[in-house]
Design a protein that fits this description.
By secondary structure, the chain is mainly beta. It contains no helices and eleven strands. About 0% of the residues lie in helices and about 55% in strands.
């Protein structure tokens, strides 16, 4: 099992910034890729950004390119999502997830989510 704990969400004004953190523990040797997803009220959960466990191959959804940056601290087993230029459309619950080496694309492990609310 892999445990994921997110932090860093909150209420921020439009144009502001936040840094979300996701601390991973447990069988992290089985992780291939880490990702951030978000779910806004009334919408489906969608991928925001992903990065391999080794810290390579960053991927961003088109809607966040240029504003969001995903990174990883190997020593701390923590993945970050730096969010700049926040807009009300970014309001959502942000989830951290881990993708297994054995079944890539399964996103087997999820954190509890952290709320990001952007006021206009």
């Amino acid at each position: 099992q892999v445990q994921l704990v997110e932090s860093g969400g909150g209420l921020v004004e439009a144009g502001g910034s936040l840094r979300l953190s996701c601390a991973a523990s447990g069988r992290t040797f089985s992780v291939y890729r880490m990702g951030w997803f978000r779910q806004a009220p009334g919408k489906e959960r969608g991928v925001v950004a992903t990065i391999t466990w080794s810290g390579g191959s960053p991927y961003y959804a088109d809607s966040v390119k240029g504003r969001f940056t995903i990174s990883r601290d190997k020593a701390l087993s923590t993945v970050y999502l730096q969010i700049n230029g926040l807009s009300p459309e970014d309001t959502a619950v942000y989830y951290c997830a881990a993708d297994s080496l054995n079944v890539r694309g399964s996103w087997d492990y999820w954190g509890q989510g952290t709320q990001v609310t952007v006021s206009s």
